């Protein structure tokens, strides 16, 4: 039987938290994000919720890397627990890896971790799977979409993103690169954006600073953020 592309979400579907997706073809497998989720009111005594990693652990010999789209807790919070089960390279932005490294130090496993910094435009080869990192805007620096090329075709994983034409860092989402992939043809688009089902649009991150400036200027005492 010919190999087939398998995409398996282990978290992050119909919930905000514990984002984790397994992408595999043949003998090669990668993990996109490795997040946690804070417990709900009906989980007394639980401090943190992480995805069920049994499937990955059983197939650890095929796991080539963990790819991080950005450094928010719901995308990196479970990394220390994953590395205790399978120590593979972790690719992400400089900021995301710095946040991860801090967590690994708390768990006492930073010294053995293989953290590899990537930037938009970089491509890494992981067995028969290659991943290109594409700049997108988000409410944290260093967010990247992924163009995942497999023998079956290209999968675009947008990560968390927003279309912001005036971002704080002056670098809008690279819609041109995404359009190039769209023109050449993709097999699957994996995309989600919080509150996308609501009408209207979200203000640019550069505008949100005005609210902070207003309250800082008008405060008569201490401001706690």
Describe this structure in words.
- It is built from 6 helices and 11 strands.
- With 225 residues, it is an alpha/beta fold.
- β8 and β9 (144-150) form a beta hairpin.
- The mean pLDDT is 93.
Summarize the structure.
This protein is an alpha/beta fold and 225 residues long. It has helices spanning 54-58, 73-76, 79-83, 94-107, 175-184, 205-218, and strands at residues 5-11, 20-25, 28-32, 63-67, 90-92, 115-117, 123-126, 129-135, 144-150, 153-157, 188-190.
Q: Topology of this protein?
A:
Elements: E1 5-11, E2 20-25, E3 28-32, H1 54-58, E4 63-67, H2 73-76, H3 79-83, E5 90-92, H4 94-107, E6 115-117, E7 123-126, E8 129-135, E9 144-150, E10 153-157, H5 175-184, E11 188-190, H6 205-218
Parallel strand pairs: 3-4, 4-5, 5-6, 10-11
Antiparallel strand pairs: 1-2, 2-3, 7-8, 8-9, 9-10
Overall geometric form: globular
Q: How many individual β-strands?
A: 11
Radius of gyration equals 19 Å
The tally of helices reads 6
Average pLDDT works out at 93
The H-and-E topology, N to C, reads as EEEHEHHEHEEEEEHEH
Our measurement of the CA-to-CA distance between the termini, rounded to an integer number of angstroms, reads 57 Å
Q: What structural class is derived from the secondary structure elements?
A: alpha/beta
Beta-strand residue percentage: 15-25%
- Major sheet characteristics: 6 strands, mixed
Strand order of the largest sheet: 1-2-3-4-5-6
Portion of residues within helices: 10-25%
Poorly predicted ranges: none
């Amino acid at each position: 039987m010919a190999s087939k592309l398998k995409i398996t979400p282990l978290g992050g579907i119909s919930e905000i938290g514990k984002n984790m997706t397994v992408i595999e073809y043949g003998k090669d497998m990668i993990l996109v994000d490795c997040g946690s989720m804070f417990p709900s009111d009906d989980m007394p005594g639980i401090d943190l919720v992480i995805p069920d990693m049994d499937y990955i652990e059983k197939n650890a010999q095929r796991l080539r890397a963990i790819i991080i789209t950005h450094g928010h807790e719901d995308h990196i919070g479970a990394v220390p627990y994953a590395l205790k089960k399978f120590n593979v390279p972790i690719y992400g932005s400089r900021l995301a890896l710095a946040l991860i490294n801090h967590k690994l130090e708390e768990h006492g496993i930073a010294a053995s971790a293989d953290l590899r910094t990537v930037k938009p435009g970089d491509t890494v080869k992981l067995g028969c799977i290659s991943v290109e990192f594409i700049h997108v805007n988000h409410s944290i620096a260093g967010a990247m979409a992924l163009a995942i090329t497999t023998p079956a075709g290209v999968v675009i994983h947008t990560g968390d993103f927003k279309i912001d034409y005036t971002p704080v860092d002056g670098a809008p989402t690279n819609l041109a690169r995404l359009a190039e992939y769209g023109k050449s043809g993709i097999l699957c688009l994996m995309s989600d954006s919080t509150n996308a089902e609501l009408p209207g649009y979200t203000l640019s991150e550069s505008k949100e600073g005005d609210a902070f400036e207003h309250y800082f200027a008008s405060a008569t005492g201490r401001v706690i953020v």
